[in-house]
Amino acid sequence: MSLRVVFRRAPWDELEEAVAWYEDRRRGLGDEFLKEIEEAIERSADHPERNPVVIGDVRRTVLRRFPYAVYFRQRNQDLVVLAVFHGRRNPLVWKRRS
User: Fold this and answer.
1) Has this prediction a pTM greater than 0.85?
2) Which residue has the higher pLDDT, 47 or 85?
3) Which of 1, 3, 22, 90 could bridge 29 with an S-S bond, Cβ 3.0-4.6 Å?
4) Within 13 Å and on the Cβ side, how many CA atoms surround 20?
């Protein structure tokens, strides 16, 4: 059974910004990035326990092609997305959200 995906506002903004950035670099690259994000979240919603715990009950799934990770936690039947985060950003930013 797949969990329902719930985005908080900050990760939604991060996702939109990243899609726009990649699309500015090359037409269609933003869509490729978004597709990989969607696939990573879908895998996590199907099997959240397959992703490592990084702090407390927060788990992370890392994208294969892009230097991004999605941080989330499971709340009942929801997968709550806390951050869509570039690997070089300061992790204290998303940790304050959890």
Assistant:
1) yes
2) 47
3) 22
4) 6
* DSSP states of 59-96: EEEE-SSSSEEEEEEEETTEEEEEEEEETTS-THHHHT
Q: How far from the centroid of its chain's Cα atoms is residue 75's Cα?
A: 16
Apex 47 CA angle, 45 and 75, nearest 5: 55
| CATH number for the domain that contains residue 71 | 3.30.2310.20
Q: Would you say residue 9 has pLDDT above 80?
A: yes
Q: pLDDT of 46-62, one tens digit each?
A: 999 999 999 999 999 99
Domain that holds residue 37: 4-95
Asked whether 84 and 14 are in contact (CB, 8 A), the reply is yes
- Count structural domains, the chain: 1
Helix (H, G, I), strand (E, B) or coil at 26: coil
Write down the pLDDT at residue 94: 59
User: Which phi and psi angles does 26 have, rounded to 5°?
Assistant: -155, 130
